[in-house]
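Problem 12. The chain below contains 330 residues. Write out its predicted structure in C-alpha cell notation.
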Amino acid sequence: MENFRALLITRDEATKKQSVGEAVLTSADLMDGDVDVRVDYSTINYKDGLAITGTLPVVRRFPMIPGVDLAGTVTASSNPGFKPGDKVILNGWGVGEVHLGAFSQMARVKGDWLIPLPAGLDGAEAMAVGTAGYTAMLALIALEAHGVKPSSGPVVVTGAAGGLGSFAVTLLADAGYTVHAVTGRAHEHDYLRGLGAGEIIDRAELAGPAKPLAKERWAGAIDAVGGTMLANIISMIGYHGAVAACGNAGGMELPTSVAPFILRGISLLGIDSVRQPKAVRIAAWDRLAKDLDPKKLAAMTTRIPFSGIVNAAHDIMAGKVRGRLVVDIG
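Solution.
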C-alpha cells in the first residue's frame, strides 16, 4: 500500500497542546519492525480514550498513531515466524504509546509482539474481544490459579457495563461462577443479566470510604475501576479470597489497610496485559476462542467506522460506551 490513512496525534512543543486528526502517510513514516501488517480491524479501549483526549500522558512520543489492538494480514516479513498472508493479532507492547499504533491502515511491528489469529475467531471478532476481553481472561485464569472456584462463592465485577467488565461477567458466568455486577448505569441492568450477572449492585454502595474490614461478601473479584471502589471490594473479600486488579478508571490511589491481607489472608493479583510471554498470550486467546458464546459476544459489540474513532474515544471517557467497539479500519 503506497499511501495509507492513519489517525495521528501531534503536539505543539511550545504549548504542549495536542491535536488529533486524519493523515495520509507512506511506509517511510512507519517505525522499525520486522513485520508489516495491513490492519483490518481495531478497537477502542479506555487507554485509547486517555491517549486521544490527552486526559493522561499515555502517549510518550509525538507524532503518534494511537490504538493498542489490531487484527490484520501480514504483507511483508523478515521474521521467521510469519509470512505474507498470515492472519495475526496484537495487544499492547507499547503500540499506540511509544510505537506507532493500530488506528492506521498499515502497521510495522516486531514479530515477537504478534500471535496468530486463533482458530474460531475472525478479525472483527478478535477485536470485539481486544485487550478488554483478553485482560478479563487473564484475570479469570489468575483467580482460578489462586483457587477461587465456582463453589467458593460469588465473584464481583466492577465497571461491569464497560468493555472489560462485560467480558468478566460473561466469562465468569459461563465458567459456572455466581456473578455480582457493579454498575452505576441503571439502564444496563437487563444487558448485564443477559451476560450472566446474578445480582446487580449500585456502585454508590461502594463509593464511600472503605472500612479496614467489612462483612465478607465475595470469594473473589475482577476489578476494572481501582481507587475507593477497589478498597471497598478488598475489605469485603472472604477468607483466602483474591482480587484480580486490572483497571484504574476510578483513580490510581488505593486507600486501604493491611487488615484484609493479614487477618483474612486475601491476595491482590495484578493483571498485566501489555507484556505477557507469547505462550501465555496464545493460551489465553485459544481459551477465549473456545469459551466465548458468539451470541453474547455479538450482544456486547458495536461496530464503528474509522471516522468515528475520535468521538468514540470521548464517549468512552465519559462512561457512555457499553461493551466493546470494533473499528473497521478498511
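Discussion. DSSP finds nine helices and 15 strands in the chain. Students who got a different answer should revisit the alignment rule from Section 12.3.
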